[in-house]
Request: fold
Amino acid sequence: MNKLTKASLFLLGFIVLGLILNYFLNSYIHAILISFMINAVMALSLNFITGLADQFSLGHAGLMAVGAYTSAIISKELLSDQWYFIPLTVVAAGFASAVLGFLVSLPSFKLKGDYLAIVTLGMAEIVRVLILNWNHVGGPRGYNAIVKFPGFLWSYSFGLLVLTITFVTFFRLKKSWFGRNLWALNEDDIAAEVMGLDLVKAKRSAFIISSFFAGVGGGVYAHHLGYISPGSFSFLISVQILIMAVLGGLGSMSGSILAAFILTILPELLRSLPTGTVDIRMIVYPVILICMMIVRPQGLLGRLELIEYFRMKKWIKS
Amino acid sequence: MENIISVKDLSIQFGGLKAVDQVSFAIQKNEIFGLIGPNGAGKTTVFNILSGFYQADSGEIIFADKNINDLKPHAVNELGIARTFQNIRLFKGLSVIENVIVALQQREKHTWFDSLLETEKFYRTEKLLYEHSIELLKIFELDRFKDHFANSLPYGAQRKLEIVRALATKPSLLMLDEPAAGMNHSEKAELNDLIRFVKDKFHLTILIIEHDMKVVMNICNRIAVLHRGKKIAEGIPAHIKSSPEVIEAYLGKRQT
Reply:
């Protein structure tokens, strides 16, 4: 099978899946599916810098917020709420976040680990507080009535397109010279520098690319819900994205998607648990996470991609 | 003979400690130059200054007619200085061949466009890098390990791999920081041959730090001796062996 037939088969599969989902499932499941796609984009974006480049970021909610607000404002103020401009505004959202990512990387490119996490965390808080005090976009009341896609099929196709582009981009970068550079500096930055690798440039490029896709994720989010507020981009969101990236396996792109799927579905499945004075859901969910991290501390797939993982299983058996 | 690198009055101070104090030496093309001295003499500090990790407080380093005092490590490497480390620093989680490819690819021109769209050029470059690194590994008989993780190799092979990786950056000056550390006698003998072989094969100049006197006296054309940050002697091995200052630095003064 060559590439083209493979790609068209995938496309056909997704179209059929979309039609089935559209006609046989209710809007509750539709909404969950779209949030899975957004979560997956965010987890991929974080995994690329934290897993590959060893840059621990806790500010992805901030980048997401910038993307979401940029996309919403452009739609409303400049493009008079036309839904067919959404792809355009989402790309603009990506660029806005990339610019912010670049600005953050300027003072912090020498930092690593916890220190970078503090800087990015601070950045996210600054963004949140700025929006909170910006009356024009509603401040704490939130930004309302953002244009949405006219139907599930549209938002499904667009979400899937964004997710596919994000995944393919990160996957190919991981497999290319750039990914190898990032692995090398992750393993031993001193040795990598002696090999002639410009650490600052490599780290900065990775951060900017990651920020771009975080902004895109935010843009899709804004047009999915139609309402955003500073509260939707709190510290907890950053942590949630981080949990997805870690659970999937730091450095595994398909792992991030898998983890995003599990962690989007799981809280919804747990809704069927009885709620009394104590919300058991909020106990069971973390317990499951803790158990998973004890059993597989390297995440579901470790560093491997899904295909490589199955290949290895086969290889071990034979 | 022309000098490939000349170091003049190099000094660096950490707090109150003068780690390197007014050290000067020059290395000629195609020679093996040894840097020896007791523990804490400042040998590795000199290496770190030369490779760009430390900034010298004073003095100058001229490499290939360029002043490299203020260059960052990666820029120093681009000019043609490669080094290895005293405590092996391989990319442990990468395979042996990937270790070499990472070093090789810094010299290749890549574009984002090619790697994102996986164009033909992308595959061509990848294939070229792969073949080239296999070639290098074959010279050192490491190609049978190519898919192993770097940290699963035996100790001697890891040392070798570090040299291969340094060579992959196509240097003209190779700096080896205690390559024989932790090796047994036969491995040391093999290393001697290897260093000579590498020097001739790749037309290199080699600067070597070593504790093992047998290795140093055997392969070095000239030697400089550091003691407490100062250079106390320089010359051919026979001369160094009989120098009273060197003997005093290593063994102490003779009681009479």
